[in-house]
Here is the input.
Amino acid sequence: MEVRHLDLLREIARRGSLVAVAAAAHRTPSALSQQLRTAERELGVKLVEPVSRGIRLTAAGQLLAEGAEDILQRIAELQARLEESAGSPRGQVRIGTLPSAGEALLPPLFRELAGTAIELDLDDFDLAEEDFAAQTLDADIVIGHSLTDDVPAGASELVSTLLVREPLDIALPEQHPLAERSSLSPEDVSRFTWLGVPQRYPFDSIPVAVEQLTGRSINRAVRLRDNRLVEALVAEGQGIALLPRFTTRPRPGVVLRPLTGVRAERAIVALSRPDRYTRLAVREVTDRLAAIGHQLTEDGKAAEAV
Here is the structure.
């Protein structure tokens, strides 16, 4: 029973198709099909069967895929012990990140890792909350966020490390009639045009809560993903918006004001699959991200006290 065969079955179970596994592994579907035939011949059982749009695991294949989780986890733990015996953490760590969080967390991380044997490989994406967990199939660490809990939806089976809790403020043009106030209520902000985010994105839960509290529908002029673009449009007077307090450096013409009366805070978290988190380098990077997140919180509190 070869580890590579078990790993392939686990990946088919996780990703749902041989084509998806091939794309993630940078191999051809025909090469993986050949590996499956070899595994079936060596194990003496049928592992996959055809369906209308590809293949699916047989009962035997599913049995082995489920067992592979435990076996590959133990192998990962053994590899981690070997790394620890060799000294300092080393190797490549792949990070997928939400841009607004990565902008604040990753530059300090690169500075801290300079001169170490850890190499970072980065990807960025802006997703609905429940989609962050799936990105851990391809990344060692996924930096995501949630507005309802410290663990994003769909990530309960992953290793989740809270990096920072960050307030979300109302961004206003500095000449806006609300800019003179020290804080804003749902009633205040419900009367103005918003620059929103796509539906199902975490930030959208706050204007929805404002609508529920006030009984007034909010006019969203646009729905955009990029915070920098939103900030630029706020500066031009196109609407008000939500922006994260610690990771936003307001440009001239934009001010931030706290929103009271609704939960306006996000948890920024690092997500990893248990077998990937076992690696010494992945744990080291996660710990450093948590320390950077803690410093962001302290710096934010100090700025508020001034």
Summary: The chain is about 45% helix and 20% strand. The CA atoms of residues 93 and 120 lie 5 Å apart.
